[in-house]
Design brief:
single chain; alpha+beta; Immunoglobulin-like; 4 domains; 7-stranded mixed β-sheet
Length: 462
Amino acid sequence: MSIDSTTNKLLIFIVIMLVFKIQAQDNSIVHAIISGKITNVKDKVFVLKGLKDKIKTTLEFDEKGNFSVDLTSPKQEFVLFEGINKAYIYLNPGDRAYLTANADNFLKSLKFTGDSAPLNNYDVGTDNLYLEENRDFKQKYSQNESEFSTSKKEWIQKYYVFLENSPGLTKEFKKIEKRNIYYGYVRDFIRYEKFHKKYVENNDFVVSENFLDEFKNLDWNNEQDYKDCHFYSHLISDRINSNFEKEKKTDENKLISKIKYINKSINNQYIKDQLLFKNSEYNITYTENFQSFYQAFLEGVKDPELKSKITKTYKSLVVLAKGKTSPKFINYENYLGGTSSLDDFKGHYVYIHIWASWCPPCTKEIPDLSKLNNKFKQITFVSISVDEGKDKSKWREMVKEKNMNWVQLYSDKNWSSEFIKAYLIKGIPRNIIIDPQGKIVSANAPRPSDEKLTNLFNELKI
């Protein structure tokens, strides 16, 4: 054998080993497959969505209800949606999971086999327990304190028993999950006053002095439980929200003052960082004064990765400041026929309402938007729908039904439209004002129902 031949074989071997090493280190290229059989699917639509990567996949079934989905996402949790039904599915890279269900009784019939089956079956079981416990939410919280307390103590034992009797779960998982169940129990007690007040229609109701004594020594700065127990993280968020609402209001922007409140109220830095990020990721895009918002965020956060993410959003917002040239949409389908682009409206103030037919807060604004359209004739009102393709007919039906006789457009790629992404739109309704020269007046304009909008129009003398 020649030296060159030996060298070439050695190089090929090294390259192969490097590829295997890279694949072993990078979970994102290791496939996970979930397959199964769902009977009685009929015209039902099942959608699988990754909670980390947000990628959605619509399941395709054969004539017997069989399906298979090949996933290349890293370890994460998925949600399988069918209408209002949903099931959480945990998958590790390389997993092969199989499920069976009857679409007519989805959660009750859902069963898993294969990899991660013990965890997924446990999760389905707890979902069913939760639905049973909260079947009549109003009745649950309308009970008096003694009845509610007795009922909750019975239910927490049911969850504990189900946990202990679920096969295949590790001791460590059971230890953590028992704490999580307890925090769900605590959370229900703490929010009892709020919901009881609502359902018995008594705004003066206050729980008795010793109602929450059982939890007076609860640790509100437990970093490990915040990481491990989702009910604990919800509990912390609820407490922050409740206490913040009770504080004396100031004239300062509410979203900014919320960030400042978190800064001063949370002692544990990890929990503070997480809450600051959760309250900034979307909210920074909903405030005109994003510079002050960003500064308040920076004053409290320490985690460099979270700081970097919000900084990236902040830098994107800078180009959406008042006076900057607006991003454009081009050739959006017009309800009346043909297409329209933002440049078609140059020479006029343009008020853009981003909405969808399935969004109640959006459709609630339609009557006020109609009034403004009739009052301010020198403003071009434009509604842009982000309805998905399957709901396009609903968009057309609603425009006709509600007599929306101003400019009605349909975005080219709904949420993935370049215009929607350029304005960092994370939720709807969202409203934008652009001046006659195509410059941004407000990237977060008031809603049609808000009198601040009319005041703004008057200030602009239009």
